[in-house]
Amino acid sequence: MSARLTPILILSFLSLLQPAQMVKHENFKTCSQSGFCKRNRALADRAQSAGASWTAPYELDGKTLQLKDGVLTGKIWKTEAGGIELPLEVSLFENGVARVTIDEAQRRTGEITLRHDSKARKERYDGAEKWALVGDHKCQKTATMETKEGVTTVAYGPDNYEARITHKPFSVQFLKGGEVYIVFNDRNLINVEHWRPKIEKAEGEEPTEDEETYWEETFGGNTDSKPRGPESVALDITFPGYDHVYGIPEHATSLSLKETRGGEGNYNEPYRLYNSDVFEYETDSPMTLYGSIPFMQAQKKGSTVGVFWLSAAETWVDVIKTKQNPHALTTEKASTQTHWISESGLLDVFVLLGPDAAWVYRQYGELTGFTTLPAMFSIAYHQCRWNYVSQDDVKDVDRKFDKFDIPYDVIWLDIEHTDGKRYFTWDPLTFSKPESMQKTLARRDRKLVAIVDPHIKNDENYAVDKEMVAKGFGVKDKGGEKVYEGWCWPGSSHWVDCFNPAAVDWWKSLFKFDKFIGSTPNLWIWNDMNEPSVFNGPETTMPKDNIHHGNWEHRDVHNINGMSFHNATYEGLKIRLGSGKERRPFVLTRSFFAGSQRSAAMWTGDNQADWPHLQQAFPMLLANGIAGFPFAGADVGGFFGNPSKELLTRWYQAGAFYPFFRGHAHIDAKRREPYLAGEPYVSIIRDAIRLRYSLLPAWYTAFHQASREGMPILRPHFVMFPDDEAGFAIDDQFFLGGTGLLAKPIVKESATKTTVYFPDDQVYYDYFDHTTYHRKGHHEVSAALEEIPLFMRGGHIIPRKDRPRRSSGLMKYDPYTLVIAVSSEGTADGVLYVDDGETYAHQSGAYIHRAFTFSYGDNTLRSGNLHPEPAKAAAYNKDMRSVRVERIVIVGIGKEWAAKKVVEVKQGSKTWKAKIVYTEGKDGKANTAVVRDPKVSITKDWSVNFT
């Protein structure tokens, strides 16, 4: 039966639906308001006060240790409460990753009693790996174990790795080549809150401070029943000698994480990982946001290590940096101490010892999966707002982009396109002919994205909700029987439970064309509000004691909820055309977890149209990239509010360097399509978008490398220059993949100049006018409104396409330009990856992968094949045989090139001449030469000799 509302209730809940004007801190917990965080932070305070006299009551029973086939097992005893058995398992993978898990024996065997007759599971949640991890991680069978004087040392890995385990108190040092890189329980803050029965207090007896939140917890008018009582896990992890740590997105903070225990410029709160719908979030804050990836990287000169804390529960992370003692007789630098605290689940941590960033990213990608190689259209420009009001409105915007010669690939529809907020439907008045609208877009090879959220309107006449409830596919309330009812955009709503495999199969079926009437193969999906956002729920989300499939509480799986939903959507889009006809889906998600990179792109949520949010975007996107999820963007122009024309223009210039590039705006914001800005802003924005399109070959090549090796697409300085400590904290400039392009988009108001840091003495060229920079350090450069500070590092060859088109699909057979930025040593190289940008044929070898090399010594540019099985590319090469290089630009050559008039081109057995035009650089600009139409194929080996 559908819900019926009184007028008072309607007005009450309508107020909940209105967007906030600023973040409401009272709606979200601080650590002191989160019982398990408060308890563990208090434990850390007591440990610090006690100093050397403090020891943790955790001891490893050496007699129980066994090492078999690369897996060490044993028992840790928590010596309080009569002794609590905690099974230990240390798995040592062949690629050098170590995994440490600690469980609770009485929970594992079900020897506990739940309160309130709860149907929740008794075990600690161990299902996060099913969602986050991929592959068959083989353990190193040659690992060896030795125990001496209460310390067990396990040797493993490809690079003299060791895990040195102290029995009493329990701690683990991870070493490489005899040097300690990571330490578990260095400060004795380990804490596994074991199950215990609730002992009722005598009349008048007050609970201890700790016990106040053991058994239930109330916040914002909602009470969490906690049927299993307190169950948090915590561990301190120290990075000796590392002064910089990064990662643990999503937070609106600097790339190099700040300290969280107070002090000038630091935070007073830990970083929180608890996926939440935060309206108009603040910048420079450790506050939780929409997604969570509990991966942290530490960096010091010449060394990168990482840890991955596998917990889907609410998690807090404290960061403290110890200071170097100037009087100490050691060269040891400052260290970083972290304290990880999760509400429930196993204590489950992976250690990645490097030695460098590329190694760590590959190891992490092998654990959680590499980012999916997206469809080409999805890395082009997207146009969105809440909401385009009708199909005629969509067609008008489409026409206006063409009228003003601004390329775009995708237009988006928010929730107002539906029939009464019922997903998989269309408003019968404003979107009466959705297929016709999509066909209009398809004429220019453009796409439509429509929103589909996880809250399903509670309406007995809505087939999707009726079927979901009837089949038991909705999330249940704490009783475990009744489907949970909460409030979101449709009003009264139910939530699909994508932890249920049968529910996932049903959800996937909804995207079939005979179910999603009005959809076409040209339509893709946006999953918003999937934290999940519940307007009347605690902290604007779902109660923690709700029950999911398998009788797991929501507290156990909260941070995976969004990923379970977008994974299901991805699979639904993938299969809707039928077997053998699959196209690479595009799904945008707001909520995410480790592993989300396998099936979605993300954006940074409800930002504001102001300069601080423009400045904040790049540190957030860089953090996401190093945490394995590089397909990320921020709402260009800001979601809330109305940007000035200068801000909008600068945001498009910045957005041209977001891996996911979308303009978006709130329903109350003024229309701000690029062509409405007026001159000179329209022309400047057009140039920024066209720059993105011209560099799509370089972007796509970077995405390909990310999909194979895990390397970030936007690369921070410390990734490219791990020995240059001066660059470790830089987060407002970055490199684009392996192209050598160094970008510093302007993010400050009224700027006409900016300072760019060049991290080495290699030559750098301004991308646009070829001004040359030869010295490492900070350089002031011009940054007028129409300028984007963008530089080419010498030694790189950059592929691009220079013919303006209306969409990326229309560029498929366009010729290429190769830009050679000659190094100080007279060399350069580059890579180009090309496939059909749409299907999975590349997985069967249908792609082009070329290496370009240039040597000043013999003045020759060569194209060589990188495809390991070229025969598999034969059919694709035939399709692409007409695609050629139409221009070669050489930057940074000597004056002797002025005498060159022709070059010799060789492809296969044929040789011919092509014209070359030299231009002398003046006023600090490099000399350049251009070869016009060398007529070489992008599919073949060839050489161009400039002698």
Automatic annotation (TrEMBL):
<protein>
    <recommendedName>
        <fullName>alpha-glucosidase</fullName>
        <ecNumber>3.2.1.20</ecNumber>
    </recommendedName>
</protein>
<dbReference type="Pfam" id="PF13802">
    <property type="entry name" value="Gal_mutarotas_2"/>
</dbReference>
<feature type="domain" description="Glycosyl hydrolase family 31 C-terminal">
    <location>
        <begin position="710"/>
        <end position="798"/>
    </location>
</feature>
<comment type="pathway">
    <text>Glycan metabolism; N-glycan metabolism.</text>
</comment>
<dbReference type="GO" id="GO:0004558">
    <property type="term" value="F:alpha-1,4-glucosidase activity"/>
</dbReference>
<dbReference type="Pfam" id="PF01055">
    <property type="entry name" value="Glyco_hydro_31_2nd"/>
</dbReference>
<dbReference type="InterPro" id="IPR000322">
    <property type="entry name" value="Glyco_hydro_31_TIM"/>
</dbReference>
<dbReference type="GO" id="GO:0030246">
    <property type="term" value="F:carbohydrate binding"/>
</dbReference>
<dbReference type="InterPro" id="IPR017853">
    <property type="entry name" value="GH"/>
</dbReference>
<dbReference type="Pfam" id="PF21365">
    <property type="entry name" value="Glyco_hydro_31_3rd"/>
</dbReference>
<dbReference type="InterPro" id="IPR011013">
    <property type="entry name" value="Gal_mutarotase_sf_dom"/>
</dbReference>
<keyword id="KW-0326">Glycosidase</keyword>
<keyword id="KW-0256">Endoplasmic reticulum</keyword>
<dbReference type="GO" id="GO:0005788">
    <property type="term" value="C:endoplasmic reticulum lumen"/>
</dbReference>
<feature type="signal peptide">
    <location>
        <begin position="1"/>
        <end position="22"/>
    </location>
</feature>
<dbReference type="GO" id="GO:0070880">
    <property type="term" value="P:fungal-type cell wall beta-glucan biosynthetic process"/>
</dbReference>
<feature type="domain" description="Glycoside hydrolase family 31 N-terminal">
    <location>
        <begin position="87"/>
        <end position="318"/>
    </location>
</feature>
<dbReference type="InterPro" id="IPR025887">
    <property type="entry name" value="Glyco_hydro_31_N_dom"/>
</dbReference>
<feature type="domain" description="Glycoside hydrolase family 31 TIM barrel">
    <location>
        <begin position="372"/>
        <end position="702"/>
    </location>
</feature>
<keyword id="KW-0325">Glycoprotein</keyword>
<dbReference type="GO" id="GO:0106407">
    <property type="term" value="F:Glc2Man9GlcNAc2 oligosaccharide glucosidase activity"/>
</dbReference>
<dbReference type="GO" id="GO:0017177">
    <property type="term" value="C:glucosidase II complex"/>
</dbReference>
<keyword id="KW-0732">Signal</keyword>
<keyword id="KW-0378">Hydrolase</keyword>
<dbReference type="InterPro" id="IPR048395">
    <property type="entry name" value="Glyco_hydro_31_C"/>
</dbReference>
<dbReference type="InterPro" id="IPR013780">
    <property type="entry name" value="Glyco_hydro_b"/>
</dbReference>
<dbReference type="GO" id="GO:0033919">
    <property type="term" value="F:glucan 1,3-alpha-glucosidase activity"/>
</dbReference>
<comment type="similarity">
    <text>Belongs to the glycosyl hydrolase 31 family.</text>
</comment>
<dbReference type="GO" id="GO:0006491">
    <property type="term" value="P:N-glycan processing"/>
</dbReference>
